């Protein structure tokens, strides 16, 4: 995550209005904005691979996959993030223009500058989204996939996806081959 922009603390409403007019993307956490850096080719490739696989697998269902440019509201209005991939079945989300509120799956592709934040504070904020059932972290450098399934008590159960094993998204009933996640990401 980038350093905070030198601005006075925003209210949520101020942020949403301001951010809609910016040429770049900015995340928002408790009144502070953070400029989003450019993603690497591998990051974009993996995000696209996962989003495309989800889009195909979810066709004909109420679930839809979104990626990169759609914000998610997390932590009860205290934070807005741009996950790499998200899935929602909420009809209000399917009509949303600025941000979504009810994702059931969030996928983050790690980068050297965001790994600690994605695993820590960002994941803690995501866990407060009542609709979230599954969370995936993908490390392009290590070619590692971590799958977290959230229990009703909001505890996270981790499953490391071994190389060559599929990423099984239990709540969505979707399986994505490991090779497909990392296709063209060499």
General description of the model:
By secondary structure, the protein is an alpha+beta fold. The chain has helices at 12-20, 41-57, 91-95, 115-119, 121-126, 178-181; strands spanning 26-29, 32-35, 64-67, 71-74, 79-81, 85-88, 99-100, 103-109, 134-139, 144-150, 156-161, 167-169, 174-176. The strands form three sheets. It has a six-stranded mixed β-sheet with strand order 3-6-8-9-10-11, with helices on one face. The protein has a five-stranded mixed β-sheet with strand order 2-1-5-4-7. Strands 12-13 form a two-stranded antiparallel sheet. Strand 12 and strand 13 form a beta hairpin. The longest helix has 17 residues, at 41-57.
Describe the secondary structure blueprint for this structure.
Elements: H1 12-20, E1 26-29, E2 32-35, H2 41-57, E3 64-67, E4 71-74, E5 79-81, E6 85-88, H3 91-95, E7 99-100, E8 103-109, H4 115-119, H5 121-126, E9 134-139, E10 144-150, E11 156-161, E12 167-169, E13 174-176, H6 178-181
Parallel strand pairs: 4-7, 8-9
Antiparallel strand pairs: 1-2, 1-5, 3-6, 4-5, 6-8, 9-10, 10-11, 12-13
Task: Write out key terms for the chains shown.
186 residues; alpha+beta; tt1808, chain A; six-stranded mixed β-sheet; five-stranded mixed β-sheet; 6 helices; 31% strand
CATH architecture label: Alpha-Beta Complex
**Percent of sequence in beta strands:** 25-35%
Low-confidence stretches: none
Give the count of structural domains: 1
Helix content: 10-25%
Largest sheet: 6 strands, mixed
Radius of gyration from CA coordinates: 16 Å
Strand segment tally: 13
Could you state the order of secondary-structure elements as H and E?
Answer: HEEHEEEEHEEHHEEEEEH
Q: Which strand order spans the largest sheet, edge to edge or round the barrel?
A: 3-6-8-9-10-11
| The CATH H-level homologous superfamily | tt1808, chain A
- Secondary structure class reads alpha+beta
Count of separate DSSP helical elements: 6
CATH domain class name: Alpha Beta
Q: Give the integer mean of the pLDDT values.
A: 91
Q: Report how far the terminal alpha carbons are from each other.
A: 24 Å
Shape: globular
The CATH topology is tt1808, chain A
């Amino acid at each position: 995550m980038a350093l905070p922009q030198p601005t006075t603390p925003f209210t949520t409403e101020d942020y949403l209005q301001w951010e809609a007019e910016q040429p770049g993307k900015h995340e928002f956490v408790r009144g502070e904005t953070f400029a989003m850096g450019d993603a690497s080719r591998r990051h974009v490739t993996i995000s696209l691979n996962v989003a495309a696989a989800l889009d195909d697998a979810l066709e004909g269902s109420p679930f839809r996959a979104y990626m990169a440019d759609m914000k998610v509201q997390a932590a009860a209005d205290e934070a807005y993030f741009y996950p790499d991939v998200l899935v929602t079945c909420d009809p209000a989300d399917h009509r949303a223009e600025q941000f979504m509120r009810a994702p059931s799956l969030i996928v983050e592709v790690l980068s050297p500058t965001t790994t600690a934040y994605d695993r820590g504070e960002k994941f803690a904020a995501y866990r407060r989204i009542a609709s979230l059932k599954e969370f995936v972290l993908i490390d392009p450098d290590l070619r590692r996939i971590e799958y977290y399934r959230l229990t009703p008590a909001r505890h996270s159960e981790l499953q490391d996806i071994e190389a060559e094993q599929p990423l099984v998204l239990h709540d969505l009933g979707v399986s994505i081959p490991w090779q497909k996640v990392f296709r063209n990401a060499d």
